[in-house]
Amino acid sequence: MDISQLPKHFDSRQAEESWDNQWEAWGVYRFDPTRARGESFVIDTPPPTVSGSLHVGHVFSYTHTDLMARFQRMMGRNIFYPLGWDDNGLPTERRVQNFFNVRCDPTIPYAEEFDTDAAAREKHPVSVSRRNFIELCLRLTAEDEKVFKALWRRIGLSVDWRHEYSTIDERCRRAAQYSFLDLYKKGHVYAVDSPAMWDVDFQTAVAQAEVEDRNTAGHFHNIRFGVEGSETTFVIATTRPELLAACVAVTAHPDDPRYKPYFGKHAVTPVFHAPVPIFPSELADPEKGTGILMVCTFGDATDVRWWREQSLPNRQIIGRNGRLMPVTYGEPGWESNNPAAANEAYAHLAGKNTKQARKIMVEVLLGDALVNPPKPIEHAVKYFEKGDQPLEFISTRQWFVRLLDKKDELISCGNRIQWHPEFMGHRYRTWTENLQFDWCISRQRYFGVPFPCWYRVDDEGNPDYVHPILAAPEVLPVDPMATAPPGFTESQRNQPGGFVAEGDVFDTWFTSSLTPQIASGWMTDPKLHSNLFPFDVRPQSHEIIRTWAFYTVVKAWLHAADVPWRHVAISGWVLDPDRKKMSKSKGNVVTPMHLLDDTATPSATGPPMRASAPIPPLTLMSSRWASAW
Q1: Per residue in 95-148, pLDDT tens?
Q2: For residue 156, what are the CA distances in angstroms to 159, 600, 626?
Q3: Closest CA to 183 of 510, 546, 562, 535
Q4: How far is the C-alpha of 563 from the C-alpha of 482, rounded, in Å?
Q5: Can you give the three-state secondary structure of 157-207, one letter per residue?
Q6: Contact at 8 Å (CB) between 228 and 267?
Q7: Is it the case that residue 276 has pLDDT exceeding 50?
Q8: Which of 46, 152, 221, 282 lies at a C-alpha separation of 20 to 30 Å from 513?
Q9: How does 135-163 read in b/e, with b if 16+ C-beta sit within 10 Å?
Q10: Cα dist from 124 to 90, 155, 224, 320, 346, whole Å
Q11: pLDDT tens for residues 41-79?
């Protein structure tokens, strides 16, 4: 070799691209399906959410996975190492809305040539049809996936790209819809009109696993109630006086001597003069507030429980958009001792959001019923993890997977899996033990996998929700909003005597929970699937044990009475200089491409290569982070 012909400076990027192409040509990372399962090492790789930029935290965790793959490959194992993209659901919708300055309106007709440049110039978001919106989602996710894939190839992940998938592609839609049909056939899914946690901005139901508590400033408002047929009064402390119109009962602890004389009687609400029963409940905390509580439809999960147990009426006042709906006192279910006064008062609230209604209640309507000024407090309020407004409990028709009757089986599944580090298995167990609701799998959104079902409509125009028309497995995937069910024509859509489509889509986790089945060919290559399943390892982060790990265990158990993998490897986080988790949603990320350009891939991936297990958090102090290793 004539060293004088070598370039003066080593071009790391050119070398990386050259070797990536060479490895691909040699098939170094390709899985050999002809080899026995005992010779294979099978990885259920996390499909990153395609809703922004990957950051150094992703490089940190995915490098650990690649180290496992490379070690096992050097040991002579046959490596099944796929990678996918999680590209459907609310994160993608929010990104598309912001990127193109649009909002989806299903009532708008499809525009053949939608001008995205013109939409971007508008001051306010432009409304687009469902089909246009989905096309924009597909367009943007395709571009994001190219960028994501370029990064993974740049850092040299030894993935077999022949097994690439995205959770919105045809293969994944077919798998998710088949999963639904199988669970429906086995009696594991059901639909019901029921109070569900609802995000008023996204206007969709959310599942318990997607909810987080956030410390929020508020006030305790002491409100005086009467006891029907007497001059007796008592005071209830509440953080939500705007729900007074939705009060359907009052409760206190059965052993609380202050309120024992009231049990079996009726309280009378101020302002709306509604008589409501007073009943004892051990769920009431004598030490909280004044020890006696409003039961409203619905303030929280305990209200829902009391509503069911006591067979209370449903006085829903908050609509899906978060505003108070019109009601009429004096009608059945809206009893009042003074309907005229109640309706006059409620007219001040109708159409207002909850904050506006709270202010009106306190400053205008409560009057002498408000005892003492409101007391400032800070308390935990439930939010959708990607939402900006507190969640409400709103009665809507939703699909659920039965889980509450399967806790013991799911805990047993968790015990069969080896967790690394071991204590992460306790997180799984604790989450499962503390489940309060079945899994709500329906979302009132657009960019997702649709439910494969329709409903007959009677001659009066009423859908028969009890007997859905299910798509046949051989026609999957299907979009019921665009395809008529068997025995019907498109002209009968939304017509008396015809049919209506299920307009909801699956919770994104309903599809993502099938990543082992999707990657192994559950619906496309049953022989390969039976050879690979269950997988050897699932690498993932700890904050989604309650979602991705848990739901994947659920699906494996319900479909195959097995666990999805033998091991779970939990990675740590990369923290920002303030020691906060680096997160796309928090906007505190450092993207890795410039680090790779500055230091070359081996240096930029050095820190995670040297980290020990269990993986500690890594604080990123500067763009020269690699020099410390």
Answers
A1: 899 999 999 999 999 999 899 999 999 999 999 999 999 999 999 999 999 988
A2: 8, 11, 17
A3: 510
A4: 36
A5: CCCCHHHCEECCCHHHHHHHHHHHHHHHHCCCEEEEEEEEEEECCCCEECC
A6: yes
A7: yes
A8: 152
A9: bbbbebbeebbeebbebbbbbbbebbeeb
A10: 20, 40, 45, 22, 32
A11: 999 998 988 876 777 778 888 988 999 999 999 999 999
Reported as a single tens digit per residue, the pLDDT across 212-262 is 999 999 999 999 999 999 999 999 999 999 999 999 999 999 999 999 999
Order of strands, sheet of 499-501, starting from the edge strand that comes earlier in the sequence: 469-470, 453-456, 499-501
Planar angle of CA 420, 424, 428, nearest 5 degrees: 125
CA distance 381 to 320: 19
Predicted confidence at residue 627, as pLDDT, reads 29
Q: What is the spatial distance between Cα 270 and Cα 245, in angstroms, rounded to a whole number?
A: 9
Quick check: 536 pLDDT over 60?
yes
Which of 149, 614, 619 lies closest to 422 in space, CA to CA? Answer: 614
Query: What is the Cα–Cα distance from 171 to 150, expressed in whole angstroms?
Result: 23
Angstrom distances, CA of residue 349 to CA of 130, 340, 354, 356: 33, 15, 9, 8
The H or E element containing residue 505 is strand 505-506
End-to-end alpha carbon distance in the chain: 33
What's the DSSP call for residue 545? I
Task: Name the residue among 218, 212, 58 with its Cα closest to residue 572.
Answer: 58
Tokens of 155: 């850092």
Q: In what order do the strands lie in the sheet with 565-571?
A: 418-420, 565-571, 535-541
The pLDDT-based confidence of 177 (bands split at 50, 70, 90) is very high
**Distance from CA of residue 48 to its chain's centroid?**
15
Q: At 233, is the secondary structure helix, strand, or coil? A: strand
How many whole angstroms separate alpha carbon 452 and alpha carbon 293? 43
Q: What percent of the chain has pLDDT over 90?
A: 76
- Residue 514 one-letter amino acid: L
What pLDDT score does 621 carry?
36
Of 467, 407, 459, the C-alpha closest to 431 is 407
- The span from the CA of 566 to the CA of 464, in Å, is 43
Of 8-17, 193-202, 612-621, give the lowest mean pLDDT range: 612-621
Given a cut of 60, is residue 616 above it in pLDDT? no
Note the pLDDT tens digit of each residue in 405-421.
999 999 999 999 999 99
Residues in the chain: 629
CA 26, chain centre distance (Å)? 41
Distance of CA 123 to the CA centre of its chain: 30
Q: Phi/psi of residue 218, each to 5°? A: -155, -165
